[in-house]
Write a structure and sequence with these properties.
35% helix, Glutaredoxin, single chain, alpha+beta, 4-stranded mixed β-sheet, 88 residues, 4 strands
């Protein structure tokens, strides 16, 4: 499983969510994480809008889940439980 995390320096939601995601990645042993900057990197392959942060979960090069915007811990936990099921 690979994670693509798209954020921006000016995005307060991105700052808030970084720690939440890092905790979840660690808890689920997810180490393949690519961080992209909204303003600096080429995001054309990902067809994204302007709501940040965006986290894309891929398995075998195919997107299986996209998480957009700020989420509370409970929502993220539920989403990651779904992702683990999809990834297996």
């Amino acid at each position: 499983m690979k994670v693509i995390r798209i954020t921006a320096i000016w995005c307060m939601s991105c700052l808030v969510m970084r720690n939440r995601y890092d905790q979840l990645f660690k808890a689920h042993n997810i180490n393949d994480i690519e961080d992209l900057d909204y303003d600096e990197d080429d995001l054309s392959p990902y067809n994204i809008g302007d709501i940040l942060p965006i986290v894309i979960i891929e398995k075998d090069g195919r997107e299986i889940k996209r998480i957009i915007g700020e989420k509370n811990r409970r929502e993220l936990k539920k989403i990651f439980e779904e992702i683990i099921i999809l990834a297996n």
